[in-house]
């Protein structure tokens, strides 16, 4: 009875499942073969031979190359060395691991060679970051070469994915040469911590999983209508009154710092989104007079609408607030939202009506929205930050700074929008086809995988303006209980689309690798859900 | 520390009718340190049927002297308390009367006892264990060591005794299809009396009791005066897990059993083997799992694992009905039992692939008989699910021996007759072992003769009402699972679809309707393993749980059920069940795993 809905997709995947799952135990050779091809996302250039080298935890090391500009003082890399060592060999502190028979290592070390004079150990990654790397695996040493630590991080991840365990529990790696770089510079995941509060450890675990998939932007949709968990130093009442709970459901300054540092260690940018003028119900609880009072007839109804765009106090507040945000979040960009502004409340308010008349906006409330956004952009620009906005801001004709990133999220007429935005010369990122909160039965990762971001008609110059995309997991139906398995490995499909070459589109091949990759995530403690029937050698234990 | 922070609050029999609350705190008499609060609330609703409730908390004043009466209005605080004040029971009891009077519970002075007239007394395995379990559920802070100490400053702990009386013993037995799960629960000052016929009924009552207890913002535990008369609408309330398409580690199964008990499910339908893998380690045929499991050591259920599942379930009043689905869905069986499956042919020669169980040879029936004997020995429940669904005839058609057999039997080209022949044989085998067979609807759809006491399970989504009519007209008992295939996910609140199902809404006589003995929620395993099972099951399965337990007329409105279910899912989180959210919002105690 369970199969009956599946007949459409069944043949291919059943066959695949048979190979992966059932015969797995019988064919050691097969296992090896599969592990070799389980790199995710697939590198740009990849050459591998059947020659395998053993890796022993007793003698293998990850070290700085002599020529490297980075050394032991580079905390970021030191940290990454340890992390990847543990990914490869497991936690050696656990007794059953240490009892493992010691054998000689064919490969004695991985030398990490950072080539540019400034390794950028203490910097933050940015949109301009060079993430390319070269990896050469040969006896007796493997060499990972990258211009800076960010490329080195990507290469370490790839290296760890090349290692596979044979049936005697010995780690092996094949002679391999890889030259790799991302196709798009902005590869993001959006998490929504307003509709449901996400405990810190869920966010950190997902940063961990992002690094495993070479994502490099955490778009933190931190506040919205439902709650305001960001604890502001300047306006503490925002979270005191706007969070679900003022102590248990908030992100303190040190929580935010921890997220940023944890992300930095993995080469991930943190771009916070403070969405206005709509999506701000929760702001009003702690900041009186910020929101527009809605009217019912001629008297206030007691409910509130978007930010009140006609009061100077609104702009004073925004000035102070974004001054804080610009210092708390080191990234060069802040996401300012600007989506889905409901005009009904503005329409109902007599003061707003008067203002509209004064300004000569007639009854076109998108002009009022633009008026607000324009002033907000100026405020934020004064903090020396760049900004990202949702597509409506562009659609409404707001004057944007040249370096503005416009995020396309509406599913209908997506290609047209990309065309328009890039024709106007703005950089853009795409999230419309990757709303992962929309779930359905079956292997929907394939839909995400098949998206080609540059398929819209336009010049080469226009296509270059598409700097990447984001997988969005909005929070209406998602919290700590189901976030991680809902996001992974579905977001992995987006990861490969944004990193690997345009020609990497074979869904069957991707399936084989992704099955392995999801088991690898499970092994590393991420409860990534299954793609289809089958099993992992090490199933999820964290229940 | 002079102001006493304790705030009494308001209860409603039907909290959802209240759209807005106007709460006036008339008078708060603040007593000094060792005394308590008198509080007098008047609650009015702005709904048309303005409902007035007056609550007078009984004084538990100690020795202290009264200080000045203080007038205060604590509108905000009180309203927020009211919001968390749904404390309903899920699934909704048949009769529930709650009063605004409430008493305090203190873990130090709380106890379960057996009533004097109870047939079960200390030493009753099921109830002794349940008392221990429910103590921790009722007082989650107590065992976690984060007890709010303040409450002992303000209140002298009052004793509270839950006295449990069952009419019949049977503490060491297993629940079965005739188990009486009814119970009466009466909660008054300082005590609760729980009466039931069987220990299984007592378990249901303890679950309801545990859901009545709530904590205020200061960590104190309360329960309102309550009267419950309760019994299930359907005797068979099942949940299917599929451990073949993905292996489910033992703890995932045990955790599911815990959550099932919270929703008053009483049958674990264990779809233990299928095409992809055979994780059941058979004592008679060890090669089945040696060769048919995903891995012969790490991905199997040993005999002691199975025993543990059965005992864990028994302790919670849950039956374990195993399914050994044949003749289709048996690919994994063939690896450890050569000759069992039909060899498929291509162009006159065996193709190397195999089809359903080979129904033409004696060895098949000998094997099935041994296997079913073992199943009877291992699984105490009187029901066995024999499957019988989705048999593909292509392989049988290709095989010359099968065709010869068809001819010999006079089946012509009708392979459903061959399937029928096979199913009848194993149903008879099962009957001879004193077991009741459950089969999927296919067996009824394609076959004329089915032993009368066979239970039929409907799984095909389209037109299940018509199927219900036909099956019950033929006099068969029926289980409904078609509308509850909750492995099929979609965006939004799909629990409402499950909730809207009316299992007896089909054309038929009263007698026919009685033949619907219950239903099952099915969580097939194509896309589900230990990583996502629990949040995908809960609270979505709760919708069917209420449909199968509660009075349908009182529970048809999903909007009314919503706040109670929301509360219940937070309670599941508190109990460590990773239940996903219904919609935006939060729980006081969020899930703290990953």
UniProtKB/TrEMBL annotation, chain A:
UniProt catalytic activity: N-acetyl-beta-D-6-sulfogalactosaminyl-(1->4)-alpha-L-iduronyl-(1->3)-N-acetyl-D-6-sulfogalactosamine + H2O = alpha-L-iduronyl-(1->3)-N-acetyl-D-6-sulfogalactosamine + N-acetyl-D-6-sulfogalactosamine; beta-D-GalNAc-(1->4)-alpha-L-IdoA-(1->3)-beta-D-GalNAc-4-sulfate-(1->4)-alpha-L-IdoA-(1->3)-D-GalNAc-4-sulfate + H2O = alpha-L-IdoA-(1->3)-beta-D-GalNAc-4-sulfate-(1->4)-alpha-L-IdoA-(1->3)-D-GalNAc-4-sulfate + N-acetyl-D-galactosamine; a ganglioside GM2 + H2O = a ganglioside GM3 + N-acetyl-beta-D-galactosamine; Hydrolysis of terminal non-reducing N-acetyl-D-hexosamine residues in N-acetyl-beta-D-hexosaminides
What the entry lists under InterPro entries is as follows: Beta_hexosaminidase_sua/sub, GH, Glyco_hydro_20_cat, Hex-like_dom2, HEX_eukaryotic_N
Compartments it resides in: Cytoplasmic vesicle, Secretory vesicle, Cortical granule; Lysosome
Q: Name one GO cellular component term.
A: lysosome
- Disulfide bridge map: 74-121, 294-345, 519-536
Q: Set out the biological process GO terms recorded for this chain's protein.
A: carbohydrate metabolic process; ganglioside catabolic process; glycosaminoglycan metabolic process
One Pfam assignment = Glyco_hydro_20
* The keyword Glycoprotein belongs to this UniProt entry's keyword annotation: yes
Signal peptide start and end residues: 1-21
Which keywords accompany this UniProt record? Cytoplasmic vesicle, Disulfide bond, Glycoprotein, Glycosidase, Hydrolase, Lipid metabolism, Lysosome, Signal
Q: Would the keyword Hydrolase turn up in this protein's UniProt record?
A: yes
Gene Ontology molecular function: beta-N-acetylhexosaminidase activity
Could you give the subunit structure recorded for this chain?
A: There are 3 forms of beta-hexosaminidase: hexosaminidase A is a heterodimer composed of one subunit alpha and one subunit beta (chain A and B); hexosaminidase B is a homodimer of two beta subunits (two chains A and B); hexosaminidase S is a homodimer of two alpha subunits. The composition of the dimer (isozyme A versus isozyme S) has a significant effect on the substrate specificity of the alpha subunit active site.
Q: What does this protein do?
A: Hydrolyzes the non-reducing end N-acetyl-D-hexosamine and/or sulfated N-acetyl-D-hexosamine of glycoconjugates, such as the oligosaccharide moieties from proteins and neutral glycolipids, or from certain mucopolysaccharides. The isozyme B does not hydrolyze each of these substrates, however hydrolyzes efficiently neutral oligosaccharide. Only the isozyme A is responsible for the degradation of GM2 gangliosides in the presence of GM2A. During fertilization is responsible, at least in part, for the zona block to polyspermy.
The name this protein carries in UniProt is: Beta-hexosaminidase
Q: What organism does the UniProt record list as the source?
A: Cyprinus carpio (Common carp)
Organism lineage reads as: Eukaryota, Metazoa, Chordata, Craniata, Vertebrata
From TrEMBL, chain B:
Q: Where are the transmembrane segments?
A: none
Q: Where would I find the Beta-hexosaminidase eukaryotic type N-terminal domain in this sequence?
A: 89-212
| Compartments reported by the entry | Lysosome
Cellular component annotations (GO), alphabetically ordered: lysosome; membrane
Identify the catalytic residues. Answer: 390 (proton donor)
KW Hydrolase (keyword) present = yes
One biological process term from GO is: ganglioside catabolic process
Q: List S-S links within the chain.
A: 124-171, 344-395, 570-587
Where mainly located? other
Q: Which domain of life is it from?
A: Eukaryota
EC numbers, comma separated: 3.2.1.52
Q: Which reaction does it catalyse?
A: beta-D-GalNAc-(1->4)-alpha-L-IdoA-(1->3)-beta-D-GalNAc-4-sulfate-(1->4)-alpha-L-IdoA-(1->3)-D-GalNAc-4-sulfate + H2O = alpha-L-IdoA-(1->3)-beta-D-GalNAc-4-sulfate-(1->4)-alpha-L-IdoA-(1->3)-D-GalNAc-4-sulfate + N-acetyl-D-galactosamine; N-acetyl-beta-D-6-sulfogalactosaminyl-(1->4)-alpha-L-iduronyl-(1->3)-N-acetyl-D-6-sulfogalactosamine + H2O = alpha-L-iduronyl-(1->3)-N-acetyl-D-6-sulfogalactosamine + N-acetyl-D-6-sulfogalactosamine; a ganglioside GM2 (d18:1(4E)) + H2O = a ganglioside GM3 (d18:1(4E)) + N-acetyl-beta-D-galactosamine; N-acetyl-beta-D-galactosaminyl-(1->4)-beta-D-3-sulfogalactosyl-(1->4)-beta-D-glucosyl-(1<->1')-ceramide + H2O = a beta-D-3-sulfogalactosyl-(1->4)-beta-D-glucosyl-(1<->1')-ceramide + N-acetyl-beta-D-galactosamine
What keywords were assigned to this record? Disulfide bond, Glycoprotein, Glycosidase, Hydrolase, Lipid metabolism, Lysosome, Signal, Zymogen
Glycoside hydrolase family 20 catalytic domain: from which residue to which, for each copy? Answer: 234-551
What CDD domains does this protein's entry cite?
A: GH20_HexA_HexB-like (cd06562)
Q: What does this protein do?
A: Hydrolyzes the non-reducing end N-acetyl-D-hexosamine and/or sulfated N-acetyl-D-hexosamine of glycoconjugates, such as the oligosaccharide moieties from proteins and neutral glycolipids, or from certain mucopolysaccharides. The isozyme S is as active as the isozyme A on the anionic bis-sulfated glycans, the chondroitin-6-sulfate trisaccharide (C6S-3), and the dermatan sulfate pentasaccharide, and the sulfated glycosphingolipid SM2. The isozyme B does not hydrolyze each of these substrates, however hydrolyzes efficiently neutral oligosaccharide.
Subunit comment: There are 3 beta-hexosaminidase isozymes: isozyme A (hexosaminidase A) is a heterodimer composed of one subunit alpha and one subunit beta (chain A and B); isozyme B (hexosaminidase B) is a homodimer of two beta subunits (two chains A and B); isozyme S (hexosaminidase S) is a homodimer of two alpha subunits. The composition of the dimer (isozyme A versus isozyme S) has a significant effect on the substrate specificity of the alpha subunit active site.
Q: Which family does it belong to?
A: Belongs to the glycosyl hydrolase 20 family.
State the protein's name.
Beta-hexosaminidase
Task: Tell me the organism.
Answer: Cyprinus carpio
Gene that this sequence comes from: LOC109070300
């Amino acid at each position: 009875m369970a199969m009956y809905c599946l007949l459409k997709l069944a043949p291919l995947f059943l066959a695949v499942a048979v190979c992966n799952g059932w015969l797995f135990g019988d064919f050691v050779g097969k296992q090896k073969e599969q592990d070799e091809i389980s790199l995710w996302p697939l590198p740009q250039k990849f050459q591998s031979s059947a020659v395998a080298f053993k890796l022993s935890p007793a003698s293998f090391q990850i070290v700085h190359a002599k020529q490297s500009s980075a050394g032991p003082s580079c905390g970021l890399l030191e940290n990454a060395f340890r992390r990847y060592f543990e990914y490869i060999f497991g936690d050696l502190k656990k007794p059953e691991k240490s009892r493992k028979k010691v054998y000689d290592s064919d490969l004695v070390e991985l030398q990490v060679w950072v080539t540019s004079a400034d390794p950028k150990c203490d910097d933050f990654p940015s949109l301009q970051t060079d993430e390319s790397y070269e990896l050469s695996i040969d006896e007796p040493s493997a060499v990972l070469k990258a211009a800076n630590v960010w490329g080195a991080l990507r290469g370490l991840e790839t290296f760890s994915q090349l290692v596979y365990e044979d049936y005697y529990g010995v780690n092996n790696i094949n002679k391999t040469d890889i030259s790799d770089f991302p196709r798009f510079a902005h590869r993001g995941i959006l998490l929504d911590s307003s509709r449901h509060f996400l405990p810190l450890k869920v966010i950190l675990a997902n940063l961990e999983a992002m690094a495993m998939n070479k994502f490099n932007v955490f778009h933190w949709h931190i506040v919205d209508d439902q709650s305001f968990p960001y604890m502001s130093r300047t306006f503490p009442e925002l979270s005191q009154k706007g969070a679900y709970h003022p102590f248990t459901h908030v992100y303190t300054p040190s929580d935010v710092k921890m997220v940023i540092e944890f992300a930095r260690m993995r080469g991930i940018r943190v771009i916070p989104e403070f969405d206005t003028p709509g999506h701000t119900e929760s702001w009003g609880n702690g900041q009186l007079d910020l929101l527009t009072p809605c009217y019912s007839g001629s008297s206030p109804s007691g409910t509130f609408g978007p930010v009140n765009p006609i009061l100077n106090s609104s702009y004073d507040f925004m000035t102070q607030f974004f001054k804080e945000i610009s210092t708390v979040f080191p990234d060069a960009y802040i996401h300012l939202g600007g989506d889905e502004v409901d005009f009904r409340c503005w329409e109902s308010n007599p003061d707003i009506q008067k203002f509209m008349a004064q300004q000569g906006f007639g009854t076109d409330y998108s002009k009022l929205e633009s008026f607000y956004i324009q002033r907000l952009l100026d405020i934020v620009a004064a903090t020396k930050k760049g900004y990202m906005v949702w597509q409506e801001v562009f659609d409404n004709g707001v004057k944007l700074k040249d370096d503005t990133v416009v995020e396309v999220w509406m599913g209908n007429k997506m290609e047209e929008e990309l065309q328009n935005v890039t024709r106007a010369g703005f950089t853009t990122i795409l999230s419309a086809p990757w709303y992962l909160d929309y779930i359905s039965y079956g292997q929907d990762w394939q839909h995400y995988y098949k998206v080609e971001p540059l398929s819209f008609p336009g010049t080469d110059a226009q296509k270059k303006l598409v700097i990447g995309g984001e997988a969005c997991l909005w929070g209406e139906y998602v919290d700590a209980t189901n976030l991680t398995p809902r996001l992974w490995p579905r977001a992995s499909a987006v990861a490969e689309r944004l990193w690997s070459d345009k020609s990497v589109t074979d869904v069957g091949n991707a399936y084989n690798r992704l099955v392995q990759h999801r088991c690898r995530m499970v092994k590393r403690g991420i409860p990534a859900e299954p793609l289809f029937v089958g099993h992992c050698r090490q199933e999820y234990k964290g229940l | 520390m002079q102001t006493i922070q304790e705030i009494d609050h308001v209860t409603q029999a039907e909290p959802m009718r209240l759209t807005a609350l106007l709460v006036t705190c008339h008078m708060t008499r603040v007593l000094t340190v060792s005394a308590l609060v008198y509080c007098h609330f008047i609650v009015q609703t702005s709904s048309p049927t303005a409902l007035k409730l007056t609550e007078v908390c009984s004084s538990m004043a100690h020795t202290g002297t009264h200080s000045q009466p203080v007038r205060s209005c604590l509108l905000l605080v009180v309203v927020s308390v009211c919001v968390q004040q749904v404390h309903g029971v899920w699934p909704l009891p048949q009769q529930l009367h709650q009063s605004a009077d409430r008493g305090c519970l203190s873990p130090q002075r709380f106890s379960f006892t057996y009533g004097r007239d109870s047939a079960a007394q200390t030493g009753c395995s099921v109830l002794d264990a349940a008392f221990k379990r429910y103590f921790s559920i009722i007082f989650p802070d107590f065992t976690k060591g984060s007890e709010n100490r303040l409450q002992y400053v303000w209140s002298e702990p009052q004793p509270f005794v839950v006295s449990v009386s069952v009419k019949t013993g049977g503490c060491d037995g297993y629940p079965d299809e005739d188990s009486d799960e009814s119970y009466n629960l009466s909660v008054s000052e300082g005590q609760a009396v729980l009466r039931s016929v069987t220990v299984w009924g007592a378990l249901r009552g303890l679950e309801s009791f545990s859901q009545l207890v709530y904590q205020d913002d200061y960590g104190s535990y309360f329960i309102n005066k309550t009267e419950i008369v309760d019994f299930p609408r359907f005797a068979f309330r099942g949940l299917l897990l599929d451990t073949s398409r993905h292996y489910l580690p033992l703890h995932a199964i045990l955790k599911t059993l815990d959550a099932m008990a919270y929703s008053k499910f009483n049958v674990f339908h264990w779809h233990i083997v299928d095409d992809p893998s055979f994780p059941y380690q058979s004592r008679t045929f060890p090669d089945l799992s040696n060769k048919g499991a995903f891995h012969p050591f790490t991905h199997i259920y040993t005999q002691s694992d199975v025993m543990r599942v059965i005992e864990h379930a028994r302790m919670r009043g849950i039956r374990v009905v195993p399914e050994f689905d044949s003749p289709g869905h048996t690919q994994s069986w063939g690896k450890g039992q050569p000759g069992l499956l039909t060899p498929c042919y291509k162009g006159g020669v065996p193709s190397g692939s195999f089809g359903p169980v080979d129904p033409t040879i004696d060895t098949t029936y000998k094997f099935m008989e041994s296997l079913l004997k073992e199943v009877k020995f291992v699984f105490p429940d009187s029901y066995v699910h024999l499957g019988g669904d989705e048999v593909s005839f292509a392989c049988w058609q290709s095989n010359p021996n099968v065709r010869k057999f068809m001819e010999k039997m006079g089946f012509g080209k009708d392979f459903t007759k061959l399937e029928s022949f096979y199913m009848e044989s194993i149903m008879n085998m099962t009957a001879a072992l004193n077991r009741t067979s459950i089969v999927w609807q296919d067996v009824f759809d394609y076959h004329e003769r089915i032993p009368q006491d066979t239970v039929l399970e409907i799984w095909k989504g389209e037109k299940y009402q018509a199927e219900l009519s036909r099956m019950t007209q033929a006099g068969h008992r029926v289980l409904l699972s078609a509308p509850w295939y909750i492995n099929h996910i979609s965006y939004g609140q799909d629990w409402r679809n499950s909730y809207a199902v009316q299992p007896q809404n089909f054309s038929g006589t009263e007698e026919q309707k009685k033949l619907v003995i219950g239903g099952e929620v099915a969580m097939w395993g194509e896309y589900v393993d230990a990583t996502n099972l629990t949040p995908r099951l809960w609270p979505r399965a709760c919708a069917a749980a209420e449909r199968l337990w509660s009075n349908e007329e009182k529970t048809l409105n999903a909007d009314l059920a919503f706040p109670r279910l929301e509360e219940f899912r937070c309670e599941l989180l508190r109990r460590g069940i990773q239940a996903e959210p219904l919609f935006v919002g939060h729980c006081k105690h969020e899930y703290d795993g990953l």
